[in-house]
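2024-03-11 09:14:02 INFO receiving multi-entity request
2024-03-11 09:14:02 INFO entity count = three
2024-03-11 09:14:03 INFO echoing inputs for audit
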Amino acid sequence: MGFTAFNPTWLLSILPELLLLALAIVVLGVDLALPAERKRTLGLWTAAGLIVVLLVTLLVPLPQGPAFGGVVQIDGIAGVFRVIFLLGGILVALMSMDFQPLRQDGPYYGLLLFSLLGMSLMAIAENLVMLYVAMELTGISAYVLVGYMRETPQSAEAGLKYFLFGAFSSAVMLYGFSWLYAFAGGTGYAQVASAIGFVRFPLAVLAFLMVLVGFGFKVAMVPMHFWAPDVYQGAPTPITAFLSVGSKAAGFAVLLRALQFLFPALEMTWVVLLVAISMVTMTLGNTFAVWQKNIKRLLAYSSIAQAGYVLIGGAAASQMGVASAAFYLIVYTVMNIAAFAVVVQVSNLTGSEEIEGFSGLARRSSFLGWSLMLALFSLGGVPPFGGFVGKLLIFASAIQSGLIALTVVGVINVIIGLYYYLNVVKVVFERRSEQEQEPLEVPAPSKWVLGITMAAIVLLGILAYPVYQWVWQASAGWF
Amino acid sequence: MEFFWQHLLSLILFVPLVGAGLVMLLPKEQDRLIKWVSLLISLIPLAISVIVWINFQPGAPGFQFEERVEWFPQIGSSYHVGIDGISLVMVLLTTFLAPLALLVSFSIHEEVRSYFALFLFLETGMLGVFLALDLLIFFLFWEIGLIPMFFLINRWGSEHGERELWRGYKVPARTYAAFKFLLYTMAGSLGLLLAIQVIGLTAKTFDIVELQKVWPAFSGSLFGLPISVIKTIGFWAFTIAFAIKVPIWPFHTWLPDAHTEAPTAGSMILAGVLLKLGAYGFLRLVLPLFPEQSVQYAWVLALLGLAAAVVGGFSALGQDDFKRLVAYSSVGHMGFVILGVAVAAKALGGEVNVLDAALATNGAVLQMFNHGITAAAMFALVGVVYERAHTRNLKDFGGLGVVVPAYGGILLFCTLASLGLPGLNGFVSEFMVFRGAWAVFPAITAATTIGLVLVAAYLLWTIQKVLLGPLNPRWETMPEINAREAIALAPLMALMFIIGVWPSWLINLFNAAVMQLIG
Amino acid sequence: MNFPFLSVIIFAPVIAAVLILLLPKDRQTEPKVLAAAGAFISLFMAVWVFLAYDRALGGYQFVEQVPWLPVIGSSYYVGVNGMGVMLVLLNALLLFCAVLISWHIEERPREFFALLLLMGVGVFGAFTLLDLLLLVLFYELVLFPIYLLIVNWGWKPLREYGAMKLTLYLLLGSLVAVVGILAIYFTSGLRTFDMVALGGVKFSPEFQRTWFLPIFVGFGVLASLWPFYSWSPDGYAAAPTAVSMLHAGVLKNVGAFTAFRVAVLLLPEGAKFWMPYIVFLMVMNVVYATFIALVHTDFKYIIGFASVAHLGVVLMGFAAMNELGWSGAVTMMFAHGIIAAMSFAIVGMVYDRTHIREIKELGGIIRRLAPAALGFAIAGFASMGMPGFLAFVAEVQVFLGLWKAASLAPWYPAIAIISVLGIIGTAAYMLRAFQYVFMGELKPQFADIPPVGPLDKVAIALMSLPLIAGGIYPLLVLPVIQSGVQSVLAVLGGA
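2024-03-11 09:21:47 INFO inference complete, emitting structure
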């Protein structure tokens, strides 16, 4: 294994990640300078910084291709996922400013940025060691963030739970990595991929399964979903949103890449496996969501189900599948964050996260009511919103690949999903409550979050083309 | 003027409809204005139909004053109207009775505007059936007339009485009657509609004139059935629809209810014109379109005519309700018409003496006209006494001849016309029917004469119960028939007399058409 | 024809809806005026399109095409043929009338009217789009305003259940159909959702037979095809008046028309294979719904079942697979739309004033609400196929079409006979409802109910007009419809 000489353009190709690191340091520095009562502005610093990073990512033509001797691979899909993470980060940072129970301080936003950095690295990693490091960086920051409200027992408990599950799954995954290393004698994807073809089939599959445990934990797919409802419920709501969006997207970034470049030899196997997992994940997530009384638990199960839809795109094993999955994740990011942003507002006000607490919301604030409705409709796949187009593209890719049964299960799941989303909408709009006359003022950052997400939900639906075109071209390099 | 002469029939047809619209625009409270305007409007079609009558050429073959406009070209149906002798007589009867019925209706006080508008609407419906030369248009007017009649009975019918539907569940009698009338007629017309569809689809036209040439000659098979089966089914579909309307026993049970519960003018029009629609349907459609089947089943028609005459007669005999009695008498009288129609049907086979057939068929048409005026007069007279006494029970009356002599005289005159006294109109037509039918259906005709006897029996009985005998003290102050009512009845009585002594002016009008019909 | 007529029709209500939502919260009148204005622009344009449509030329006219998702071959592609012209006109008319009828809404009028307009937008789209993907999008776009309208402004005891049932049924149906559409998309090999282009593809008979059923039945759910109709009466009973009007009046037509356009026109072989069997379900629509309506005593349910029965006739027209049947089906869609909307509008007027829907508890209302009674009589007689009303013109064509279809399967004439017999049932329940509600003695508790307002009168008049005018002079509507049917047949090569 020859070493390639260091090339300065490598640094340029990971510029977004470097900028994230710099931003984290800046935020921690500013934290020291700010008086306690103004620490809330840290959220603005974070968001503004992230916007700069986003603009750089989008507008500056960064070098593409492998860097650092193939440890990372900068390609179109990686670019898409970077944007997803940055977008999620901006929205979560803004949202966090309005979450009252949360202590506003530098470490919080710093950890958020570190976690984002980890995710970004996950998306570009093409080496097992790099991948492991990136996942741990993401994971450890997230464990702390989940338990960040130390004074609330639920948050602490959730943090612990998340940590235990995470540690377990990453241990299994690491063990799987060690097998892969044993097969190939190296940790580069290409190396491993070519070696796997020569390994005895059961062993290869076993290794694949162990690795899948780690990825599955991140995307919260069945059977690695157990942590999600408890952790989502206990974590600070903005962090719940962050986990449900960023962590999941990062998991998919890794999973999709690994399927194509780490295990291409096992394609016959993993397609069948993913089809099965996707079916179970959707069905289980949606079915459990129906019974939930707590909005965060409901959204937790819903996000499990949503992972199931994205898995369909993976199972399709085609350019359209990958492109649709990536497109869906973009849409999913905005709509899920929108839903949580409304939850933040309501729980600030009522201190409750029970669905009943949303009664009369539309009468108190038409803006919040309509926002939540649009978000849930989009999650449920009602046109003309982004969620509909996303689901449509995913099902289209499945049919293109001949996965008719999977499509049918998916369609049935959309119906089940719509049932519980509509139930929440019903409470928001139709149920009355005693406080419905008190108007509810939405603070500015949340207004921005909701404004951006609402616009995105609608535009991704009715003007989906430019975005899908971008994702489509980005995924062209893989096939 | 050009337009006027080109569209005489359309004007007759649509003036009442437009008039109905005008009436609806009048202020709601102006009862008198509404009544007079409606009456004047109804005189317009009468005037035009008289003009048509004057310009009508009785001897000419085919239809006259034809008009034809594209209407529903997709399926080969057009707005096609025209008249021959038979329809002219019927149109005259309708336009003649309508103003009289409106005059009688001046005693209406509830929701006058709607009543008069509906009445004019009804006139259009009836005229349309007589004028239509297109099956679909025929059907259109056939059905549309039900709407106003339904409301007239339902809303302005007699206010008393209830009918038990089932398990003690009661509805007002007029509602019951209106529903029965509508549902019976509609049920009958469903078969008609289906048969019309099959005919139209096969012949690719709904034009009656065309169909009369094409359809009887049509051969081959349809829907895997031989054409003769299809035609037989079609024949019965038509026959049942028209039989319900006439009505022929056993489809007659709606009639006593409807006639009894309808307002006076409604009964006049029902008996005077609506019943003729069915008989007209036989002559215009059943016989020309289904000649073979008509010959084959003529005896059934004759038997049904017999049944109607006898059942109607016996039922009338058993009535205590004056209006119901007159209603049943209509069933009986229409039985004679059907007997004449049966002869005409038989004659299509060419095995009947032309003279007999012509006599009977002419008699049937004349009987339609005669019954139209007599029945209208009878119902009007029942209405007159009911408005004064508020009862129709014959047992309550008696000796009225002394209190209201003028009324008694008119009633006696009309009754005698109805029972067929020579010198009055009923005698002429009934004689013609029996004379013609005798040679064709001797046994049935002989039996039908029972009907004649029954008519005489119950009508004389009625005279006795109403006018003669001891006076019920309740009626000592009963007012005499007033001028308006007398004016309404006078033209009817004049016609009864004129036709009785000189029927040929009327028969000449339709004789050519009848001859053409029976070949 | 460079002016984007169809886009104006589709998006005028959207703009009105957005403006309404931007109004301050407490405004009562402005939302209504804006809604009426938006709906009126669409109506005006729809009338214009109706008059300007070149009947001799036929085919799709007023076409506009803008790329939307070119990567998968989908574009915003609108156009109407003669059939579409009628349906767009119907929707525009009913949307406008629905706004008028809802003028008395005082509970959150902003949201109500915005949602109502959005519902209309979805329908316009579904009638005009020639791109399968966007067609589905608009088709489903309709669902969400309906859900909210029913849940928020519907009839309390039933609204949650009714709304959920309706939404889930319709969604399930449409998603099943979507799967079929995707199958068409991929099998065609054209990589386009352009229906005109897809119409030129000859799919293999096996493919057509496999996929016809899910697509037709999937969309058929929205047309309340038996046995998937049960959302309809419950949904209508629960919905506020304007929603029942639009739902019964146009949405069911969306289902029937889309089923026709997608399943029958793209998969004609499949249609020929399956229609002779599916037609039995349609007969069940007529027979079953008629029997239930005969015994029901809830005013709104009766109308709901009547509409289920009528849709049976519409679908039968399509099932006849010939020019007459199809032309009849489109005419029936138009006629049924108006009848249903008008009936529901009148049920609403009566209910708003009496708060009773049980027909036996009403009575004599004609004395207070004469225009409503007149309207109901017109709708009732039209709905029983009385000649002189547009529905008769439609039914005659459908039945003739069924007779003609005897070459497809020998039992078609029997179907025609059975459905004609249904007319007598319709007559019975319509008149029964009329009798109980409007006739008889005016009950004292209704002596002071307010009379029918001027806007309601305008709406009733607007809806009666085409029903009667078209019945008296069918050539008013038939040439347009026929030109549509013929251009479709020309594409199919005379199916």
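2024-03-11 09:21:48 INFO post-check: The first helix of chain C runs from residue 5 to 22.
2024-03-11 09:21:48 INFO post-check: The mean pLDDT of chain C is 86.
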